[in-house]
Write a structure and sequence with these properties.
The protein is an alpha+beta fold and about 525 residues long. About 15% of the residues lie in helices and about 40% in strands. The strands form six sheets. It has a five-stranded mixed β-barrel. β2 and β3 form a beta hairpin.
Length: about 525
């Protein structure tokens, strides 16, 4: 009986110990934090070694984090509370697998994606260079493609690394937890905003500062700041004449210019440099009165005249016809050269259209003033053949005074093809003054007028129906010219020439042929003789 009692007591003790163990296990399990992999937990640093940091997250075992995951290992100490990411509840050694960096990324991702979306601006720090671009810390790592790192094609890595810049978020991939940012878009947006701000502040007539960025043949491009480039046209650089903008400006020059015009939509700005000073044309009428003598510098030569600079920005035109009373110039360069300092007279002024007419010959006496009294109509004069053209010969009567003998005034009867058939250059001849036009500097001369008009006698000699022997001097498509006496020709019209059907005038008759002709009419007024080859 005693034995049974002892056995009963042993059984009761065993049951009590088992219950205690079960209770202790229940209490221990309840004391463990319920955690899941991928969860972010708070933990306490319980130990720090050269290689790792041991963290208690309230689980059955502690976790170790590589010391390399801490940006400043010297700043942490035992007892610090940190956030960690649970990668695994247990590794091969039975420890919890934790990561501080993944926790930071997860927290950063949630924070960034909750605050920003695609197209938003965010500040970030360029942390490292990788293949194809850079990594940027914006609270979470984001990718900056090299093509979006700058407005320029070339990217200076040293100027980016470690620097904080504004970026535009161009892509958020929530599935892969990737963010792509662009510094180029951020710079362009800032530039556009600066441009708009500057354009809003611009006013016509205002003076602004700028830097010459480029020079072309037609002007200079000036950077006004904020990405706004204005054009300073060559015509707005100086009141005076300039051949190229480089005569006034150089790339890199800091200049002050006036805003002439601008367009906010197209962002075009027209600038002026000369407008900062008074327009010299405002006072020209008081400085250069008509009839006054002025001094100036020849700055340009054209076939029609010379441009003379009177002062910077004021030029007058000395027309080729105003160079000399008597001499005929083919080009002003026969008398003047660029750079010549000359005196001239103001002939006319058009202030509104910025034109001043100058004269050189007006400084000398006009020899044509008394030409009408010196060479009255009907006067016989002598002179030298100076030049010949198809229409006549120029005879020099005195220095600078020429008279023209028209080809029709060389002979009463002979048909003259060219003055050279009668005259030689340099030959001295006698002529009669037919007309004088002093205003237009013209004198008409005649040689045939040295003898009486013979056509009244010719009309009496060659009466109608008179038959003559003549010599063909010229065959034309409209008829034949026939010489009937020395230096006396008549015309037989084709209608007065007998031709067989299909027969051609130029094939039947040749110059030099002798033919019989009949006088049809003598016009003593027009100096013409009409002939016929029919009925002779």
């Amino acid at each position: 009986m005693d034995n049974n009692k002892e056995e009963l007591q042993d059984t009761e003790k065993t049951d009590t110990k088992e219950d205690a163990r079960e209770e202790l296990s229940r209490l221990y399990n309840e004391s463990m934090v319920k955690i899941e992999e991928g969860q972010i937990l708070k933990g306490i640093i319980v130990a720090i070694t050269p290689k790792e940091v041991v963290v208690d997250v309230g689980y059955k075992s502690e976790g170790a984090i590589s010391i390399s995951e801490f940006q400043d290992p010297d700043a942490i100490k035992v007892g610090d509370e940190i956030e960690v990411y649970l990668e695994s509840k247990e590794d091969d050694s039975g420890m919890v697998v934790l990561s501080k960096q993944k926790a930071e990324r997860a927290v950063g991702w949630d924070m960034v994606t909750s605050r920003y979306g695609e197209g938003d601006m965010v500040d970030g720090k360029v942390t490292k260079k990788i293949k194809g671009g850079f990594m940027v810390d914006i609270g979470v790592e984001a990718f900056l493609p090299a093509s979006l790192a700058s407005l320029k094609a070339f990217v200076n890595v040293n100027q980016l690394m470690g620097q904080v810049f504004p970026f535009k978020i161009v892509k958020i991939n929530k599935a892969r937890k990737n963010i792509v940012v662009s510094r180029k878009d951020a710079l362009q947006q800032q530039r556009d905003e600066d441009k708009k701000k500057l354009m809003d502040e611009l006013q016509k007539g205002s003076i602004v500062k700028g830097i010459v960025r480029n020079i072309t043949d037609f002007g200079a491009f000036v950077d006004l700041g904020g990405g706004v480039i204005g054009l300073l046209h060559i015509s707005d650089m100086s009141w005076g004449r300039i051949s190229h903008p480089s005569e006034v400006l150089a790339i890199g020059d800091n200049i002050e210019v006036m805003v002439l015009d601008f367009n906010k939509e197209s962002l075009k700005v027209s600038l002026g440099l000369k407008q900062k000073t008074q327009d010299p044309w405002e006072t020209v009428d008081s400085k250069y009165a008509i009839g006054s003598k002025i001094k100036g510098t020849v700055v340009n030569l054209m076939p029609y005249g010379a441009f003379v600079e009177l002062e910077k920005g004021v030029e007058g035109l000395l027309h080729i016809s105003e160079l000399s009373w008597t001499k005929k110039y083919n080009h002003p360069n026969e008398l003047l050269a660029i750079g010549d300092r000359i005196e001239a007279q103001v002939l006319d002024m058009d202030k509104q259209n910025r034109k001043i007419s100058l004269g050189l010959k007006q400084l000398e006496a006009n020899p044509w003033i008394d030409v009408e009294s010196k060479y009255p109509v009907g006067t016989r004069v002598k002179g030298k053949i100076r030049n010949m053209t198809d229409y006549g010969a120029f005879v020099e009567l005195e220095d600078g005074i020429d008279g023209l003998i028209h080809v029709s005034d060389i002979s009463w009867t002979k048909r003259i093809g060219h003055p050279k058939d009668v005259f030689k250059k340099g030959e001295k001849i006698e002529a009669v003054v037919l007309a004088v036009d002093a205003n237009n500097h013209r004198i008409s001369l005649g040689v045939k007028q040295l003898s009486p008009d013979p056509w009244d006698d010719i009309a009496a000699k060659y009466v109608q129906e008179t038959v003559l022997d003549g010599k063909i001097t010229k065959v034309a498509n409209f008829g034949l010219f026939v010489e009937i006496d020395q230096d006396l020709e008549g015309l037989a019209h084709v209608s007065e020439i007998p031709l067989a059907e299909g027969e051609k005038l130029e094939e039947k008759y040749k110059a030099g042929d002798t033919v019989k002709v009949k006088v049809l009419k003598v016009d003593s007024i027009q100096h013409k003789i009409a002939l016929s080859l029919k009925g002779v």
